[in-house]
Amino acid sequence: MKFKAMATVAALVLAAPMGAMADPDDDTLVLNDETTMVTKTAAPAHLEGALDTIMSGWHFRSDETQVMQADDFDNPGMVFVENALAAWETADGSEGKSCASCHGAVETMAGVKATYPKWNEDAGKVYTLQNQVNACRTERMGAKAWGYDKQPAIEMEALLSSYSRGMPVNVAIDGPARATWEKGKELYYTRTGQLEMSCANCHEDNYGNMIRADHLSQGQINGFPTYRLKNAKLNGVQSRFKGCVRDTRAETYSPGSEEFIALELYVMSRGNGLSVEGPSVRN
Amino acid sequence: MEFTRRETLAIGAGAAVAASLPIGAMAATPADEAIAAFTGGAQMGEGGLTLTAPEIAENGNTVPIEVSAPGAEAIMVLALGNPTPGVARFRFGPNAAAQAASTRIRLAGTQDVLAVARMGDGSFVKASATVKVTIGGCGG
Amino acid sequence: MAIGVKPRVKVPKTAAAGDAITIKTLISHKMESGQRKDKEGNVIPRSIINRFTCEFNGDMVLDVEMFPAISTNPYFQFEAVVPEAGEFRFTWYDDDGDVYDAAKKIAIA
């Protein structure tokens, strides 16, 4: 679609905030000139009646931000992935083991991120990837658990995610994980805070519209952990949830809480079929 | 000339921001001093120096820019609306294949970015770009 | 020593003699501007990398004087000419006196 340049700026000033012209773009994300990412696809069956097409948050960002994610060197998030690669090979804890002691090369973890959060039979609950990493640390390495979304944890999550990039998100929502998924779905649609807003009010009902100068995405989380230009560091998805809930002027749950684990499972399932992108770059 | 939808949008959104934000008085003194220190008070021409910056920056904390001036010895970049205007001063050596560089900068708000190049013959040229810095709705 | 500072450079492994190549560099650094305040309202002192240089076999490619407006995790992209096989040396100078460096060899193909 093209507009004649004669369209006056004044008219556009009126039109732009109405949101009709703030649609996500149709660009294609090719990673390192090699991997074409699935950033738009048909919504999974469980979203019938809610969304037809699911879209990565990448489509809602400016060209300058988009291009930063297309090359591993231009993506500042990859610096932190390299930190985690060193941690992967470094023994920690009373057992003298590193991640590599059990798992070998980190390449063997390809595909893992795409399936988390998922049910852990031994624990009898849904684990996020950070929960699983901490279970390894405390149960196998004799090391201290990392704080939820704290730097070592988020860097390790980004490392693992980086080896799943391009693979489709595929979290299980049936079987023993179902009850947690249902709880997450309820949280997604529950209005919170003084503003009485649910996740859905912004990210299902109004994606593509502007909220002040911000372009509302579908709130997909296939790109987490995310390097944000705003704070120039890797951000965990549950910390992002906290920011959203706080913006509704509600008391928030904490990263690592049962509520946010359930919400992460549910929101991740809304992206089933999109490529894993983490570490992505967002504003 | 035709604009794509994205370009048209960018103009519209930029105009909206420009209209709603009073542009702060330029911090003329420190910037003038920096320019004088770089040029020695010489006149600045135009042409031969390209400053590439987004019309609208999604976040002022990380704004990609590029400067290019074939044949230049050095290029200074100033952010005229920042509390301190200095951004960077690039000096190109004999092994530079192009007198060009890209970096990412902080802009405290909507403002003009100015580049000044000292050319091989000792003359000076300048180029500037206005970057609108948007204010997001979500603190996150 | 500032914490967590890690340089990263991207240089092709080979080039034809006389070719121009693209170099990218990024170093993880907070680039504390000196403009921010902490929770108690005290100004956080400036602590930035103030200079970056790239040399090839001892000859200068690029010398950048950096100010607080350079973003966190400073990034530079530029082009160098490769007259012969040799080594690129990259050096970052921190306000606190620390110097970080990296080197990359390049062969003539």
Give an overview in words:
The complex is a heterotrimer of chains A (283), B (140) and C (109). Chain A is of the alpha+beta class and 283 residues long. Chain A has helices at 9-15, 63-69, 77-88, 99-103, 129-141, 151-162, 178-189, 199-203, 237-247, 258-269; strands at 2-4, 30-31, 35-36, 40-42, 53-55, 118-120, 125-127, 210-211, 214-215, 226-228, 233-235, 280-282. Chain A has ten helices and twelve strands. Chain A has a three-stranded mixed beta sheet with strand order 11-10-12. Chain A has a two-stranded antiparallel ribbon with strand order 2-3. A two-stranded antiparallel ribbon of chain A has the order 4-5. Residues 1-21 of chain A have low confidence and may be disordered. Chain B is α+β, with helices and mostly antiparallel strands. Chain B has a single domain, classed as SoxY domain (Immunoglobulin-like, Sandwich). Mean pLDDT of chain B is 85; it is low at 11-27. Chain C has no helices and eight strands. In chain C, the strands form two sheets. Chain C has a five-stranded mixed beta sheet, with no helix packed on it. A three-stranded antiparallel beta sheet of chain C has the order 1-3-6, with no helix packed on it. In chain C, β4 (49-56) and β5 (59-66) form a beta hairpin. β8 (96-105) of chain B pairs antiparallel with β6 (75-82) of chain C.
